[in-house]
Amino acid sequence: MTYRYITTPIYYVNDRPHMGHAYASVHADVMARYLRAAGHEVMLLTGADEHGEKIARAAQQANETPQASAERHARSFEEAWRALAVEPDRFVRTSAPDHARVVSQCLTRLFDAGEIYLADYEGLYSVGQERFVTEKELVDGKLPEDKEPPVVRREPNYFFRMEAHREWMRQLLLDTPELIQPAQYRNEVLRLLEEPIGDLSISRPVERLAWGIPIPWDTRHVTYVWFDALLSYVSPLGYPDRPEFARFWPSVRHVIGKDILRTHTLFWLSMTHALGIAPYRRLHVSGHLLGADGRKMSKSLGNGVDPLAAAGTYGVDALRYTLIREVSFGFDGIISEAVIEQRLNRDLADDLGNLASRTLSMVVKYRGGLVPAPKTYEAAEHALMARARELPAAVLALVDEMKPGRAVEQVMEFVKQLNVYVANSAPWTLARDARAAGRLDTVLYTLLEALYGVSNLLYPVMPGKMKELQTWLGVPNVSDVASGASWDRPWGEGVKPGTVVSEGILFPKLAN
Ligand code: ME8
After folding, report:
1. pTM above 0.90, yes or no
2. Which tens digits make up the pLDDT trace of 427-454?
3. SS3 44
4. What CATH number should be reported for the domain whose range is 337-483?
5. What is the CATH superfamily name and number for domain 3-286?
6. Is the beta carbon of 291 within 6 A of some atom in ligand 1?
């Protein structure tokens, strides 16, 4: 058995999930589903980052306790993932006792090892990002991602000796070019590591912030939210001694946005190194989703599209498809209602939906709805079969590099190729000639079998619609392992001659 562990960011739950959250979670879920289809035992983790000032402030504004507010919002995240067909195996909550125990153990170990010390600290603090910032990071007096300028703070803090791990991190990045993807983010971190990074403040005085995990040996302080949150990648696996940790951790891939690159490199790599935890295997870094106006999607600008509303209007599968296909992972890109509608109408309705409905309706019309047996394959069929055989490996290779958009593009190219094949072989003409009956059988069978392959290849992106299509094709659903359904069944072992198929419209077009 091979194990694969994939994580989404552990989101702040001070509001409902927005499209940026959906982008990261859908990518992680799609990767998890592809790897599962390829036969790996996969663990997908998401969760709620419930401590820290941001959450405490949101609770205060809503006149709730932080615990009650986090509870309510964590539940709304869980519901949102269900609605978006994101199916995590674990949902970690940083306020859970099991997690707090792991954080306390880690702090104690690092303190005992001399990796943590107490000192006075004065500096500029970004409340928005929950961290001290340096002058160098500021643009016009504030962090570009913040609305407010940072505030000056002086207080006793516990510090983690992050600087002591800098050279090791730099070497790790040099020795492992594939660690951080795409490469531009690795280069960005390498540049940061060329100069001193300082030590990391990892506690907050209780009088300023009580909502957090107490520092075990000094309860006048609580743990800084990032030190707590990053450990939520290991606590759900029963770190340090449960077998799940040993099984899954070596394969871990974190999916994050570029806004949290620094914390996932400088903070997390040094923390894991100090704790003796192997560094993650991959860090997959996304760009930012932009609104229709080309600016970063944000609530204050009101340029975002609500993911649940969009799933309601366009269907969850069309939304997932658009997120994967439209904005290449690692780059910035626009997601607007117009973009989703265009993907739905063109790619899904015109190309894929049309291929499915015309194939199925011809089988119903010309063959009484029964899958025909193929007769003699000609050059056109051999070309399609060859492509169908290559696609699963090509798709998996791209998914492995977190390029699911490119993978899906290849499958959709194949769909286009199949539509051309329909036009060239003109089954409607063959149907008028009794001597062409064998040829018509071959063409219809080829289309059905190729469509079955497509449904498997796109299942991780559009599980709902592809399951529906497989039902119409009369084949067991690929997610139903007990049925023996397999993702890359060889050509000729998918749809079965003599099986009944049914017609349907997969993606009704939205009129504008
Ligand atoms: O940072 N475009 O949580 P968070 C694309 N709790 N992705 C976006 C986005 C946008 N406009 N806006 C947000 C935190 N995201 C911490 C994480 S991990 C141990 C702790 C996505 O709720 C993107 O993946 O602010 C980003 O990294 C994440 O949401 C931040 O979520």
Report:
1. yes
2. 999 999 999 999 999 999 999 999 999 9
3. strand
4. 1.10.730.10
5. HUPs (3.40.50.620)
6. no
